[in-house]
């Protein structure tokens, strides 16, 4: 009987030892999973931050208070319409770089680039909002449907989405 009791105790110790080992392994797996989840969360956060930074960069200058020479928005718009508004007269060099690009994926003469569009600054929008007639004119000018009806076929394809986003943002401002 003594031998049988010894055997039972030994089996119990072995069973407890196996249970402890299984618990250690489960804890290690859980820790590994937590570490993996943290790493994925950090990677996702970095991806979102990069996306947000790229998105912000695509709108740089839209509402900046940078000095835009001494011209008003109205003067810049009239110049833009004069160069781009009619069925002819758009055969011009982009104001962005002062030369015409030729080649795949590059802008040709007959396209309006993002830097050619005279987006108003936030300050200009604020001052225009004070005058109902001027505000109505601004709303019609920057209404996305109206803008694209007038200039849509002349926009550079590579920059069309960015221009569309800025036009919508100006209209909603």
Characterise this structure.
The chain is mainly alpha-helical and 173 residues long. Helices cover 62% and strands 0% of the residues. The chain is rod-shaped, with a radius of gyration of 32 Å. It starts with a helix and ends with a helix.
Give me some keywords for this one.
173 residues, 6 helices, mainly alpha
- Estimated helix fraction: 55-70%
What percentage of amino acids are in beta strands? under 5%
Through-space gap between termini? 91 Å
What's the count of strands? 0
Assign an overall shape.
rod-shaped
Structural class: mainly alpha
Major sheet description: none
Instruction: Output the number of helix runs.
Output: 6
Rounded average pLDDT: 76
N-to-C SSE string, H for helix and E for strand: HHHHHH
Q: How much is the radius of gyration in Å?
A: 32 Å
As residue ranges, the low-confidence spans are 63-70, 87-95, 97-109
């Amino acid at each position: 009987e003594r031998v049988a009791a010894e055997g039972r105790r030994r089996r119990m110790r072995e069973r407890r030892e196996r249970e402890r080992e299984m618990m250690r392994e489960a804890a290690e797996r859980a820790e590994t999973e937590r570490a993996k989840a943290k790493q994925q969360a950090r990677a996702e956060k970095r991806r979102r931050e990069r996306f947000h930074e790229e998105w912000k960069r695509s709108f740089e200058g839209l509402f900046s208070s940078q000095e835009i020479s001494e011209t008003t928005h109205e003067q810049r718009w009239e110049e833009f319409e004069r160069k781009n508004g009619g069925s002819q007269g758009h055969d011009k060099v982009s104001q962005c770089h002062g030369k015409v690009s030729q080649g795949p994926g590059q802008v040709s003469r007959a396209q309006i680039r993002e830097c050619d569009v005279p987006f108003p600054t936030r300050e200009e929008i604020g001052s225009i909002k004070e005058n109902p007639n001027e505000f109505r004119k601004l709303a019609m000018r920057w209404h996305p449907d109206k803008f694209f009806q007038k200039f849509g076929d002349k926009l550079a394809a590579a920059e069309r989405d960015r221009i569309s986003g800025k036009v919508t943002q100006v209209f909603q401002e």
